[in-house]
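Subject: Sanity check before I submit

Could someone independently write out the structure tokens for this chain? I want to compare against mine line by line before I put it in a report. The sequence has 401 residues.
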Amino acid sequence: MNFLEFAAWGAYLTSMGTYLVNIDMASNIGWFYAVQGVVSIFMPALMGIVADRWIPAQRLLGLCHLLAGLFMFGAAYAGLSHNYQFIFPSYTLSVAFYMPTLALANSVAYSGLTQAGMDTVKDFPPIRVFGTVGFICMMWVVDLCGFQPNQNQFIVSGIVSIILFFYSFTLPSCSVAEAGEKKSLVDAFGLQAFTLFKQKRMAIFFIFSMMLGVSLQITNGFANPFITSFKDIPEYAGTFGVQHANILISLSQISETVCILFIPFFMKRYGIKNVMLIAMFAWVLRFGLFGAGNPGNGVWMFVLSMIVYGVAFDFFNISGSLFVDKSTDPSLRSSAQGLFMLMTNGIGATVGTLSAQAIVNSHTDDGVTDWQTCWYIFAAYALLVGVSFALMFRPKKVEVE
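---
Independent answer below. Compare away.
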């Protein structure tokens, strides 16, 4: 399940920017990535409510992938027929149904592990590794098949989503709320997860999750166009990174597969606050190394940035998801995961990608972008968030232990 879940995303997430540049839509890259955040503001929470109350999570996961795959085929057809004005609407509908599946897949996994009497903190990370493996495989497929600059990456994504739809029928069943239970008005509308904001500790956690979520999609949207932009400089035109940007970027996901395995150790040894801080300062390094490196003699900085990404992404996303799962009632599992997605991939990612696009546009003159300054601005932001989080977040003693 995890392999297919992230393979559908990996088919286009890191290479779509280069495709948009190729069809003269470079100024819209931010919107294509931001719309993932826009739909994440309401769709994951909405689907989480549906999964908690009416449709079992594993069944809803499959239905969402069916619709996401069909609309992704629509986006590919629009590109193939050069009706570029229809790419964005079709793509938007696809990600509207895809984004909720990230939280639903977590809920299905946690539910299945709990039913099997297993420890989610210990046993989930090795399973989640297969999601990253799926992401990497599709990145390589798209790169080696020459799909980075064209719409075929959308076709690959659609095919994987349809496969997961059929596979969802084999997944263990998840529970929904018992019919006939007396519920409060908040419960009736499935808004109970939002009451977590009444707890100061959880409110601070979700707010900083949103602020760190700003960083999540910046490199997904702009790393590939940034690296391939070196093709206009004769010194770097023939380098491996410029020719195979997706494969170079896939080192980030390879790093993920290793870093995920360290999460149980770090969570149990250092607690959620220190793990989140490690992630925040890793983002500072991630952006700073991009600003300082190049595909030639400075390619080692790119490689190091890719390695650091594993820590930056996993220590935030996976650890945060586990923290939310352990801090909420099982009856709110899907809704709480949806709320976490709303704050990170929703509000945070939307603000981040649109802000990043504005920064890139403001530092672009006659088609040439001052990428170094842009990356340093992103690094400074991540540093500010990290320092603020260190001063303000106070977890319970039991969570530190």
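---
OP: Matches mine. For the report I'm noting this point. Confidence is low (pLDDT under 50) at residues 179-183.
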